[in-house]
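User: Hi! I have a protein structure encoded as tokens and I'd like to know what sequence might fold into it. I'm fairly new to this, so please keep things simple.
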């Protein structure tokens, strides 16, 4: 039988209320239509009486203004689900084997399509049966292998003959070493040493001989430069990133001198006399002045190394002869201070491979020497470096900013009468080392320098790299250990050798520090000068690259085979939940999303990964199945570290285990600190073994999408770029900028790989890349959406809520990037309103922001005038308190949150601390709180001014002191002593109908849901209601019914009185947490096993008896209610992200609202003292500094 539908029965009074409210709605509509400016002055009193009657009737019928509610929306399935389709071979016109090769060998994607197809003509097929070797030690290492079908095993042969499987190769994966490709190109081909590949099943393999590259490069020398540069970038960003930054390896990566000698000697001509007093140290007659070090360590013979060492010694001898002859006439000159002149940017136009190489090397931002002076000089920050002798080979540095001192020897141009002769002779030797066909290429491109013992030539992390060619003395190279201040000696650069090539070729920051431990004379070539030589003679890049590769240890070559450089297309799954954990990934560029599927089948967003993030490390180290599914939000590049390789490294270098344990503990601790208190709800969507990441953190690319033409999108983007530049280098890309740089055909399909490579290069070179879309759905707009980590939908806050045409079109496409709504408001105009309507019109948005814009943004100007305006603006420093700076901090993950704790009247001190924060220049990007902290925080989020907040809070405090209103609100105490009506009116009077979404600053507060026994975090809805709910003290006020689901809400202090962890999980980098809670006494009386109430009464009544501290029933209940809160507070206070502040307000009681001004002053003076201390120790500077 079908179940009958229920019949609802209405009482008469319900019908009366229903029809009465219906009539009043019509009256209100007619009344509002009558209220017009055309109404005569005589009829105004009648209209006022009518409005009074309307308000009285509305109060009698309990009518409340119906406010729009935010529709709860789930993220679109396209955001949470990976693409299930496989790589589509049929949709491409290229053969399947060509697509395999293109997809897996990343360096090939940087060729133009015709060049790549020409290269693929040399591909051959190779069939291998199970157990058959593809290659073995001793065979030439001169091919790239891509597995098309079957399975391969990459095997490492240990010195004792034991074989270890480093990784398993599946269809589509490749086996090759880019360093081996470089060896073939430079004419230094080597055989396989310890690596072999064996077929684990019958397999079909594609083989591409590396000799094919040489044929291509003869006709296209520009491509040679580009490919070598990509190989060097891969070496530094993939291999070094994995082995050094994450595994903590340092000197294991380089071939270096095993023991550091106290004095280094140079083999020189017998008649040679070194420099005195500021030059080289006096020689020891029985010792030579140089030691030879083999260059070809990675696999060459020792005899060859000795011959090369002797050759370098001979090159250095001629220069030393000149130096010693010059010493007698060399006066002592103080070092010339360096001055810097930035090199102008290279000219715009369609970019060749040379131009792309220039940009990859960041030539446009490098510091160049002034070529107008006789001795070119540049400015550098002085660093004090002290070296302690330690038998372990570890050296400690202490850096300072002092001027030249005995502990900070200067580096300056070499000065003397024969300096030009020495320079010319040294240039000849350098030309031979670089194999220059025309020695005159070095003219005006190298400078002669002299460094005293102890001088630091270049520091680790510096962006402006240069080449250094040692003439006399030697340069020591050190690298800082991970998470330590200690530096490890890597290798020695002797006369006739160069150092600094890797940073010059890649454009990346230096990975080591170069120091002159003794007096040294050297040639310096700037990055720009090297690239100018490379443009004239492209083959020079092979010589320089070979010197870099020769420095690498055999271990690095083995890892180069094992560590994969892989690409994941947008929407493709990297791995799925439940898969076996057999590797760890490092994000090089792009963005990936982690999604967990609950037992009910519901999918939830866990977090996102950006550049340099580790993926799956916890599961791989603990050997647990994958806890989540990770898929690419956009086209991404990753480094893959297989489990077999990691195990091999752990066996060879046991210290890596300690580093991995540290890494694992950091991830687990980060997961614990992200959890929202002891009663964390399942809605967090965080697996215990996953790494929780804020979805909008670590962004690299941001697309700006205007809602309509009236949005000043160009001015908005330029203003945002100005704010972002204060955090890190920022690039604004438009369709016009792209065409200027890559030509008008840049968006054509034939240019796809070049465009992708160029855009990835811009991400590497800049902290944030802004993509400004066109006003219509053009190919550039599609590219912007495809490249974006986050899409900013920009609308005008004072206009009617709307969805733009372009936005509607994109709603029908598979957009995987997160969206944020940004509403612009005019300076001095009305505050935010109707935000809920803006949000309800759209699909799920990850957040929204209100931006107050300066007037010049809305001034209409032609593009030339606009650019001129912002050129002047860029010369000024960005205001860190502006809304654009706040948006910049949100996008870069540098948000500063203010969290205010509960504590009754003691919370009035919050405003004093906020006033002190404003005077100290600390920006506030997010506000949250509990109880009185929720009230003060809501006021500040609405006003954004401590003075206005204080005025409104003082008026409310006066209401709280009203005895008459308090007595009238008394009720029969079944649920509470008061009905809550008077308290509701006081809060409603302050906030009226304001919605949380309409506050200037992102805001949240915390309540305790006693219906579901859980913590509730409120970020939307009626502001006064949720503030009132967060201030609902048990026994005094009744619980507030949540207007969304009817659950009963109480004071949030019972579960989380200082919710700094909530702010952290919402994306805050730093949380300033102000605690004003009561302090419970801990020195209670030990009364034994039993307690008599009569005894306690006698102790209290007897004036001569000793007082005992025993809690009464009310205090016991209060302490029980706050047990979880106390535990949570201790976790927050010990967190690294939290700056904990507690003003001295213990003498004030919970209901001392009459002492508002006194409590405010206590908070203000304590805040001034704390923030002055922060300024003294640069804590404020660290707070606003970029998280990277």
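Assistant: Happy to help. Inverse folding works backwards from shape to sequence: for each of the 1188 positions I chose a residue that suits the local structure. Here it is:
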């Amino acid at each position: 039988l079908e179940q009958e539908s229920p019949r609802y029965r209405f009482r008469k009074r319900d019908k009366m209320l229903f029809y009465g409210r219906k009539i009043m709605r019509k009256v209100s509509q007619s009344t509002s239509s009558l209220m017009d400016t055309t109404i005569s002055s005589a009829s105004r009193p009648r209209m006022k009486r009518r409005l009074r009657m309307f308000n009285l009737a509305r109060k009698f019928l309990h009518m409340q203004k119906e406010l729009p509610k935010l529709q709860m929306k789930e993220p679109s399935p396209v955001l949470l689900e990976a693409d299930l389709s496989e790589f589509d071979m049929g949709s491409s016109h290229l053969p399947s084997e060509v697509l395999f090769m293109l997809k897996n060998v990343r360096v090939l994607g940087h060729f133009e399509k015709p060049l790549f197809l020409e290269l693929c003509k040399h591909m051959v097929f190779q069939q291998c049966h199970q157990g058959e070797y593809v290659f073995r030690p001793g065979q030439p290492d001169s091919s790239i292998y891509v597995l098309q079908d079957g399975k391969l095993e990459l095997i490492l042969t240990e010195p004792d003959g034991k074989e270890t499987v480093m990784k398993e190769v599946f269809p589509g994966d490749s086996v090759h070493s880019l360093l081996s490709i470089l060896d073939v190109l430079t004419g230094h081909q080597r055989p396989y040493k310890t690596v072999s590949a064996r077929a684990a099943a019958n397999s079909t393999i594609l083989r591409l001989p590396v000799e094919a590259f040489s044929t291509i490069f003869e006709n296209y020398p520009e491509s040679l430069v580009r490919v070598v540069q990509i190989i060097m970038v891969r070496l530094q960003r993939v291999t070094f990133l994995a082995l050094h930054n994450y595994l903590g390896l340092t000197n294991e990566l380089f071939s270096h001198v095993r023991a550091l000698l106290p004095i280094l000697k140079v083999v020189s001509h017998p008649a040679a006399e070194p420099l005195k007093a500021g030059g080289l140290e006096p020689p020891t007659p029985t010792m030579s002045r140089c030691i030879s070090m083999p260059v070809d360590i990675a696999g060459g013979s020792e005899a060859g190394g000795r011959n090369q060492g002797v050759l370098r010694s001979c090159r250095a001898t001629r220069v030393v002869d000149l130096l010693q002859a010059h010493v007698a006439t060399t006066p002592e000159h103080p070092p010339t201070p360096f001055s810097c002149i930035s090199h102008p940017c290279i000219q715009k136009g369609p970019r060749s491979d040379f131009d792309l190489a220039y940009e990859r090397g960041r030539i446009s931002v490098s510091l160049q020497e002034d070529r107008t002076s006789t001795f070119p000089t540049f400015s550098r920050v002085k660093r004090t470096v002290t070296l302690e002798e330690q038998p372990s080979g570890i050296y400690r540095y202490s850096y300072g900013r002092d001027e030249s001192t005995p502990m900070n020897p200067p580096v300056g141009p070499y000065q003397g009468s024969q300096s030009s002769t020495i320079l010319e002779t040294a240039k000849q030797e350098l030309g031979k080392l670089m194999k220059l066909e025309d020695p005159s290429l070095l003219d005006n491109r190298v400078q002669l320098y002299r460094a005293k013992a102890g001088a630091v030539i270049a520091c680790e992390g510096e962006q402006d790299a240069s080449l250094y060619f040692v003439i006399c003395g030697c340069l020591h190279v050190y690298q800082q250990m991970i998470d330590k201040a200690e530096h490890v000696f890597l290798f020695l650069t002797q006369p006739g050798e160069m150092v600094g090539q890797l940073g010059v070729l890649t454009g990346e920051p230096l990975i080591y520090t170069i120091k002159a431990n003794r007096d040294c004379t050297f040639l310096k070539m700037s990055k720009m000068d090297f690239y100018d030589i490379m443009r004239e003679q492209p083959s020079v890049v092979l010589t320089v690259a070979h010197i870099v590769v020769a420095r690498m240890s055999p271990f690095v070559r083995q890892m180069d085979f094992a560590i994969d450089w892989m690409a994941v297309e947008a929407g493709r799954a990297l791995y799925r939940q439940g898969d076996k954990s057999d590797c760890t990934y490092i994000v090089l560029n792009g963005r990936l999303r982690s999604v967990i599927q609950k037992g009910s089948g519901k999918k939830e967003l866990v977090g996102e990964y950006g550049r340099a993030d580790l993926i799956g490390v916890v599961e791989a180290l603990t050997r647990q199945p994958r806890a989540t599914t990770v898929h690419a939000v956009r086209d991404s590049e990753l480094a893959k570290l297989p489990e077999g390789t990691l195990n091999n490294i752990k066996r060879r270098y046991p210290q890596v285990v300690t580093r991995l344990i540290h890494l694992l503990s950091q991830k687990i601790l980060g997961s614990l600190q992200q959890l929202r208190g002891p009663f964390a709800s399942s809605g967090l969507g965080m697996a215990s073994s996953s790494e929780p990441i804020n979805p909008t953190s670590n962004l690299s690319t941001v697309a700006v999408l205007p809602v309509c033409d009236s949005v000043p999108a160009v001015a908005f983007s330029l203003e945002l770029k100005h704010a972002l530049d204060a955090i890190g280098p920022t690039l604004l890309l438009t369709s016009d900028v792209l065409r200027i740089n890559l030509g008008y055909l840049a968006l054509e399909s034939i240019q796809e790989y070049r465009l992708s490579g160029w855009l990835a290069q811009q991400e590497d070179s800049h902290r944030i890349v802004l993509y400004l879309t066109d006003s219509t759905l053009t190919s550039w707009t599609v590219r912007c959406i495809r490249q974006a980590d986050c899409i900013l939908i920009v609308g005008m806050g004072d206009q009617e809520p709307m969805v733009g045409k372009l936005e509607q079109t994109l709603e029908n496409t598979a957009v995987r990037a997160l969206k944020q709504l940004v509403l612009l408001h005019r300076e001095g105009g009305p505050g935010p309103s109707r935000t809920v309507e803006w949000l309800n019109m759209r699909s799920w948005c990850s957040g929204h922001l209100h931006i107050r814009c300066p007037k010049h943004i809305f001034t209409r100007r032609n593009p030339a005038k606009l650019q001129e305006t912002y050129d002047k603006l860029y010369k000024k420093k960005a205001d860190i308190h502006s809304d654009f700076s706040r948006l910049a901090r949100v996008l870069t993950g540098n948000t500063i949150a203010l969290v205010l704790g509960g504590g009754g009247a003691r919370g009035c001190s919050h405003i004093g601390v906020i006033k002190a924060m404003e005077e100290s220049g600390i920006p506030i990007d997010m506000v949250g709180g509990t109880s009185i902290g929720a009230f003060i925080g809501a006021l500040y989020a609405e006003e954004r001014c401590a003075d206005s907040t204080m005025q409104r809070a003082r008026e409310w405090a006066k209401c709280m002191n009203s005895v008459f209103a308090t007595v009238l609100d008394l009720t029969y105490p079944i649920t509470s002593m008061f009905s809550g009506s008077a308290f509701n009116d006081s809060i409603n009077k302050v906030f009226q109908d304001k919605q949380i979404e309409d506050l200037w600053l992102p805001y949240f507060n915390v309540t305790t849901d006693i219906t579901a026994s859980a913590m509730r975090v409120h970020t939307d809805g009626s502001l006064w209601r949720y503030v009132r709910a967060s201030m609902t003290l048990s026994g005094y006020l009744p619980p507030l019914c949540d207007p969304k689901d009817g659950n009963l809400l109480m004071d949030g202090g019972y579960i989380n009185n200082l919710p700094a962890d909530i702010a952290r999980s919402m994306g805050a980098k730093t949380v300033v947490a102000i605690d004003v809670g009561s302090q419970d006494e801990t020195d209670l009386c030990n009364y034994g096993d039993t307690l008599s109430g009569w005894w306690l009464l006698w102790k209290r009544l007897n004036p001569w008896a000793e007082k005992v501290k025993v809690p009464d029933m009310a205090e016991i209940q209060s302490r029980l209610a706050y047990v979880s809160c106390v535990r949570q507070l201790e976790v927050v206070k010990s967190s690294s992200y939290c700056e904990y502040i507690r003003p001295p307000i213990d003498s004030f009681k919970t209901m001392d609202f009459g002492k508002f001004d006194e409590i405010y002053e206590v908070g203000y003076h304590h805040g001034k003292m704390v923030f002055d201390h922060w300024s003294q120790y640069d804590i404020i500077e660290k707070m606003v500094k970029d998280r990277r």
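A useful reference point when you look it over: The first strand starts at residue 124 and ends at 128. Feel free to ask if any position seems puzzling.
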